[in-house]
Design brief:
Oligomer: heterodimer
Order of helices and strands of chain B: EEEEEEHHEHEEEEEE
Radius of gyration of chain A: 27 Å
Largest sheet of chain B: 6 strands, antiparallel
Distance between the termini of chain B: 17 Å
Helix content of chain B: 10-25%
Number of domains of chain B: 1
Strand order of the largest sheet of chain B: 2-3-11-8-7-4
Strand content of chain A: 15-25%
Amino acid sequence: MTRHRIKSLTEEQERALVEFRQRMWRQATSCEPVDRAVATKAIANAYAAVGRAPPTMLWMPSPATCVLALYALGKLSENPQWPDAARMSVGLGIEIDYDLSLLSLDLWCEHRYRLARKLAANLKRELAASLEQELMSVALRTGVESGLADWPDRLKCTLKDRLEAELRDGLGVELKVGLVNTLKGELSADVAQDLYYLSVDGYFLGQMDAHWLAYYRFGSIVGRVQESLLNRLGILERIAASCGYWFPRDGVCIVSDRFASVHWNNARSSVGFPTHLHHGTKQAVSFRDGWGLYYWHGLRIPPSHEWLFTNRAKLSIDKIEKEPNAELRRVMLEIYGFERYLAEREARVIASDELHGQPRKLYEVNVGGEPVRIVEVVNGSLEGDGTRRKFHLGAARDSNRQPPNTPHESIANSYGIAPEHYREAVRT
Amino acid sequence: MQIIDYDPANGQAFQGDVAIIPIPAGIKIATVNEMRPIDGKLILQEGERTGHHHHIVLRERNFRPATRQVDPVLHVRDTKLRRAFAGSGRRRAISGARMYRDPKVATEMQRMGLLTRTDLAVGCLVVEGAAVVIAHQEHDGIRVAPGKYLIGRQVEGDGAVAERFVED
């Protein structure tokens, strides 16, 4: 059989690709509430694909409560009787009482040990093997890619990789790390560790799985694909279009709502997707139970510093100067206003120079009547929006405890390099 | 994030609070105390608050520290002899990076007038074979050519006289 192989996309297909990519992005970052009807049916289909009965659905408002629900259900399963108080609070101020009453009749009638086993039986691998691996199988690859000649690489670059960079590696990884940090920060080490093991790798990204599903869907439109394989693609697409993270277990599926809000700054990738999570006054990523993450121009703010957004009145110059982390101090200074800081500390420029085309300044400020020198430097790496971060560091003294007189001396001292040998070949 | 090539002949390289300082040819590094990679990454400096770190992603064959006691080939410093022992005549550019703790290196560099203090030294980075990239979530990567480098931290003044480590 002679196959027609596509050398390049037509103008119409190119336009369709851009529109499709934008549509997938909107779907992956959708803040619409979970579509329970669609998700229930699609997840039941996914379970059926691996020969399992439809699971009991447990709806949670965020990935954090999904993990807590897994933990809470595990604890409940250790009780000899169904506890009177199904309301469990295991930290974060979030009470796990969502739909437990619905669960109780279905699940608690079964022996509690069976529940424990069900929760421990993580179906992620089984489902992935059946749904994802078959999608990535030779049959589908042949179908999608044979029609594309040498074009799959371009399709990967222009569609899959672009969505993957901002969805899986950006938003997805940030949520995972943010969740772990929240657990570590708010719960006892043992509980946090249990929760971590319960959740790690045991879930699908839901709406954010669009990054790889999109490649196969668009490829199938312009290539050739067996109908039976499209059926499996359709199952995962319907899940991705209807809910957030989902944690498949034996007989139980814990499903997260989608985002309540996601905010970015103006930095954009080459295809126009936002790259830096940011909100000046509230959570940049939030869910309907209140859990969320704070970002300042792409920098994740650790739980210890969320007060910068929730209680900004606490921010003072003393707190800024005492902050040991240079990145967080930069954020604090940007929020406080560097000009305001300089004015309040009666700053004056002692010396300035230029390195790699970027200015450096040595200031002397008045801290409680005592002169203190600080050096202003610009980050070597460009931000996505074309700007550079500006840092302010306390000027380091030399080996004779003398303060520096130039930015050059100050930076050399700070790395313990003799000023006459200090020469920046590269700065990032 | 981009990757910037670093030529040690032009001076030192800096990635935020980490300095990469070429070690002069005459200084030998003791390889007794090797710093272990974690999950396939050689961590040069870890961010305590933000969780970001300066690291080199190693290829699988370089995940484990050298096992000198059991592999005599690795004892041999002469590359021709080592290739002959290993039974391979082909030169392959496989990048490898190892970190060693050897305080004497910084002491010697201070004695030579290159450094003003030794307490900021984290370890000695040895890059062999091909260049490796030092990466960080918030900074462009730095491609480091084969060679020996002292990895150092940064301090800043804290008030009029005290000082503290810079963390980013």
